[in-house]
Amino acid sequence: MGRLTYYPGCSLRHSAAEFDISTRLVLHKLGVDFVEVPDWTCCGSSPAHMTDHLLAQGLAARNLRQAATVGDEMVAPCPSCYQRQKDAELEIEEDPGFRQTVNEVLDLPYEGSVRVLTLPEVLLEKSGVEAIRRRVTTDLVKLRVVPYYGCLLGRPSSLTGEADEEQPTSMDRLLEAAGATVQRWNYKTECCGASVGMPKAEIHRRLSRKVLDQALEAGADAVAVACPLCHQNLDLRQVQINAAFGSSYSVPILYVTQVLGLAFGYSDEEMLLHKHAVDPRPLVAKAIKEAVAFREEEARLASEHEARQKMKEAAKQDRARRRAGRVPSTEEGGAAPEEAVPATSAHDREEEAAG
Amino acid sequence: MIRYDSEGAAQLRDRMLSRVKADVAACYQCGNCSAGCPAAFTFDYAPNQIMRMLQVGMLDEVLASSAVQLCVQCLTCTSRCPRNIDIAGIFEDLKTVAVAKDVRVPEDAATFNRVFLENVAKYGRLTEAMMLLRYNLMSKHPLNDAELGIPMLTKGKVEVLPKKAAGADEVGRIYRKSLEKARWEG
Ligand code: SF4
Ligand code: SF4
Ligand code: SF4
Ligand code: SF4
């Protein structure tokens, strides 16, 4: 078997369609083979795990069982879905007694062992930084972004495999491979306050504002996310944050897969950039234009530099020739003429400048 | 007025050990969990205080606290605890205990969770209408065109008639069977 299965989850089916489509296109471009989990159902999200443990694990186990009919790995781009299913995977693997308990609430038992992966994990494991770099056709060097992992992509490291919970790097590596300029910041994993079904509005506004503020502080023009809830919180609710604090944030929030897709040459329409509340298109267009100008300027400077180097080289040879005429042999003289006779070299430099 | 109920405390410790694999007795009150908690400013007791209350067996007080209900499950506390205690796991478990015992679960949260799960149990997948409701409740103010109409409704993000997913009936049975068991064990 061994196929990778894809679990879209409810958010990606609906409000986060741009995350779904950009993810599928990017996986396709990178040649990562996958198939949708047959007849997947909702993982139950926070309401299930806040209500009953067995219910939460049962809903997740049903999806694992469905995935097992066609493959042995599952990628869930939504970190919330990922966490639910990963948690069930681990508990069922570790405890055969619990597998039995879960199977009692399922119609058909789950006997497989499907490994659940985050999207950054899949992109890095099944494709990798080099393969991504090779497919870049649009230069995004002038797109300054900060990666926002939120609370679920890095924590806990026993689940996600990130080496450092406070400073995960998977999204950084993906964005750098796509050619974007990644700014350093300390808000990568700061919670935006929305992981539970219904938090206090006060909590999420305060936390989301901090995230936007810190992104700008870090010199970023946009925030890259890999979570539909983070996206909703930072993008769709930016107007509310502005209304609550009298601020005027207008920070585009991009899915990491949209950045990869743009780098691979997909258009704004293909990446569904128009679906966002804070329109990222002007920023993206500007960044691409600036990158072209920047590279032209870079090429111009490089050719000027080359020309200068050639001139220097010619002058040096000229100097050496003349010196050879004046002092027939330095080979036995010991000291190098340049350091030993400063007056001569100063004189030569004048000549070089003049010629 | 600290009551120390040693028997209750020992029982509670065992319970957390078996349910969450977390040892509340290991907590040495460093306060790291509270320092990093993004939601503690809305709690009646900070996470480390809850840990202390669990150590001395004050389960009822803990279940009645707003902290248990307002925790957003961001896992910051768990990842920063020097004693490797899964504090977020403890909070999560306490939430389910509060639901089972029907203690102080805020009305709107309880209603939301129930409506959410019933929606899933019926259709197998969350319907778009449910997603809008979630958004509406989370932002605590009515939907309006400027915020939702334009970004979501006109951009083809809404499905008009909910369809039933193929696995919906099984999901309904998982829902009923799990809650049956929860009631039976509680
Ligand atoms: S967590 Fe959210 S998006 Fe994921 S399957 Fe469940 S409801 Fe759907
Ligand atoms: S939406 Fe916010 S709360 Fe959820 S995972 Fe993303 S960062 Fe955490
Ligand atoms: S971080 Fe851990 S040890 Fe420190 S107070 Fe919190 S639970 Fe106790
Ligand atoms: S999981 Fe809950 S208690 Fe722990 S830091 Fe997050 S909000 Fe606070």
Task: Briefly characterize the structure.
With 355 residues, chain A is of the alpha/beta class.
Structure description:
The complex is a heterodimer of chains A (355) and B (186). By secondary structure, chain A is α/β, with parallel strands linked by helices. Chain A contains 17 helices and eight strands. The longest helix of chain A has 46 residues, at 281-326. Chain A starts with a strand and ends with a helix. Mean pLDDT of chain A is 86; it is low at 333-355. Chain B is mostly helical and 186 residues long. Chain B folds into two domains: 6-100, Fumarate Reductase Iron-sulfur Protein, Chain B, domain 2, CATH 1.10.1060.10; 109-182, no CATH class. Chain B is 62% helix and 0% strand. Mean pLDDT of chain B is 78; it is low at 140-157. At the A-B interface, helix 1, helix 3, helix 4 and helix 11 of A face helix 6, helix 7, helix 8, helix 9 and helix 10 of B. The complex binds iron/sulfur cluster (SF4) (4 copies). One iron/sulfur cluster binds next to helix 2 and helix 3 of chain B.
List keywords for this structure.
heterodimer; A: 355 residues; alpha/beta; Glutathione S-transferase Yfyf (Class Pi), Chain A, domain 2; Rossmann fold; 2 domains; 4-stranded parallel β-sheet; 7% strand; elongated; disordered C terminus; B: 186 residues; mainly alpha; Fumarate Reductase Iron-sulfur Protein, Chain B, domain 2; 11 helices; binds iron/sulfur cluster
What is the multimeric organization of the chains shown? heterodimer
C-alpha Rg of chain A, in Å?
28 Å
CATH top level of the largest domain in chain B is Mainly Alpha
Strand order, largest beta sheet of chain A: 2-1-3-4
Order of helices and strands of chain B: HHHHHHHHHHH
Supply the number of structural domains of chain B.
2
Q: What ranges of chain A have pLDDT less than 50 throughout 5 or more consecutive residues?
A: 333-355
Named once each, the bound ligands are: iron/sulfur cluster
Question: What coarse outline of chain A follows from CA principal-axis ratios?
Answer: elongated
Spans of chain B with pLDDT under 50 lasting ≥5 residues?
140-157
How far apart lie the N and C ends of chain B? 30 Å
